[in-house]
Amino acid sequence: MKIAHLVGRTALAALIGLPLGLSAAEDGAQGGAEKRCIPLSRISSVRVLDDQHIRFEMAGGPDYLNTLPRRCPGLNRNDPILYKTSLSELCDLDTITVLHQVGGGFMRGATCGLGTFVPVEEKPSGDEAAPAAD
Asked: Less Cβ crowding at N or C end of the chain, within 10 Å?
């Protein structure tokens, strides 16, 4: 996983690609309280599950599943995303932008709003889906 800071601390593009099933991600969701914001400094990687679900892996746990309010056109496991914030946190009022690899660079795609962050119990291992919670 490669993560690149693009515009200082205000933007981050995460190269992602995990064949993680949505049902496994949703099954891993805890009954814990959802959060409106998560600290940028603790995000260790970002994994897009499909066009409406993104998993934020956090240093020191727990990880968070974000369900976008609407499907985001072009958002899939093979494209990186860009997110911007003027704060030290990523919040449900912030947006993500899909980036498409073109030649040696990137072209911006759709920009979509984030939803709330719901804690998930288990970390995915390698290319396998997160185990379901009991």
From this structure: C
Name the 3-class secondary structure at 129: coil
Global pTM reads 0.70
DSSP letter assigned to residue 35: B
- Listing from the earlier edge strand, what are the strands of the sheet with 63-67? 43-50, 53-58, 63-67, 117-120
Q: With DSSP H G I counted as helix, E B as strand and the rest as coil, what are the percentages for the chain, rounded to 5?
A: 5, 45, 50
What's the pLDDT tens digit per position in 73-131?
Answer: 999 986 799 998 888 999 999 999 999 989 999 999 999 999 999 999 776 655 444 43
Intra-chain end-to-end CA distance of the chain, in Å: 29
Any residues with CB less than 8 A from the CB of 80 and at least 6 apart, and which?
13, 14, 15, 16, 99, 101, 106
- Contact status, residue 96 vs residue 52, Cβ threshold 8 Å: no
